[in-house]
Amino acid sequence: MSVLKKINAKLDGMAPGDREIGQYIVDNPDQMLRLSTAALAAEIGRSQSSVVKFSQKLGYASYQELKLAVSEAKAQDWQVPAGVIHGSIEVGDTYPVILKKLIGSKLLSMQQTVAANSERIISRTLELLDGARRIHLVGVGASSLVARDFSYKLMKLGRNVLHDSDSHIQMANAATLGPGDVLFALSYSGASIETLRIAELAAKRGTTVIAVTGLHDNPLSRVADIRLYTIADEERARSSSITARDAQLTLTDLLFILLLQKQPDANDYVHNSEAAVSVLKAERSS
């Protein structure tokens, strides 16, 4: 049973305050996903602590975990294409079943990630990136690959971008940041020690920290000024951060496209980049 159905089923037996919170969530799940505990409390005229306690009464350790459950419930309303399966890939699965499960997991992760981030927070992130003096992208492991991809895209737009796969160099770069700069930190767990320490250093230097992380409460999200959430099946046994990477790429690609639309001379930058590369391709083929 989804959390929305569970709340709806328990409404009649709840105390008046809890019933008011529960009814709001059932009636406005999309709005709830955009609200912090304080904002939700203000919306319905209850205390912030009552919202937290409501989450705990449902069996969740925090309000963020409740939001994740609501996001998952909303995603169930979205139907994956016919023939696509979402579930854990097992050792004995056949090739066609593996394909269907893999595609289903990727699609669901991307859809849930988009649902977990409001247009307002995406717009605010866009404003910060657009106005940044420098943008420093950090991440380790698979998150570093996403950071590198995003850095290339931003450089195509003529942005002043810092990125290096070596965490020591990332830390050294962070030591040069200050007000007017943006640190864009990617970590699904939010507990990668290198990324966390870099974010803490940047924050101390007055840099705006944007975190791309899981919806659960974590150290990186607590350091960040802006939080973008990714949703993935990373708690299950896995051999690689497949769905977390897809979720991160969904957000970075979205931000790149929106910046492309926002920047008046973006097409000129992209054209110049493509023209420069085409010269090398021509020389190689000659």
Automatic annotation (TrEMBL):
SUPFAM superfamilies: Homeodomain-like, SIS domain. GO terms for biological process: carbohydrate derivative metabolic process. CDD domains: SIS_RpiR. The keyword Transcription applies. Keywords: DNA-binding, Transcription, Transcription regulation. Pfam families: HTH_6 (PF01418), SIS (PF01380). GO terms for molecular function: carbohydrate derivative binding; DNA binding; DNA-binding transcription factor activity. The keyword Transcription applies. PANTHER family: GLUCOKINASE, HTH-TYPE TRANSCRIPTIONAL REGULATOR MURR. This is MurR/RpiR family transcriptional regulator. The lineage of its organism: Bacteria, Pseudomonadati, Pseudomonadota, Alphaproteobacteria, Hyphomicrobiales.
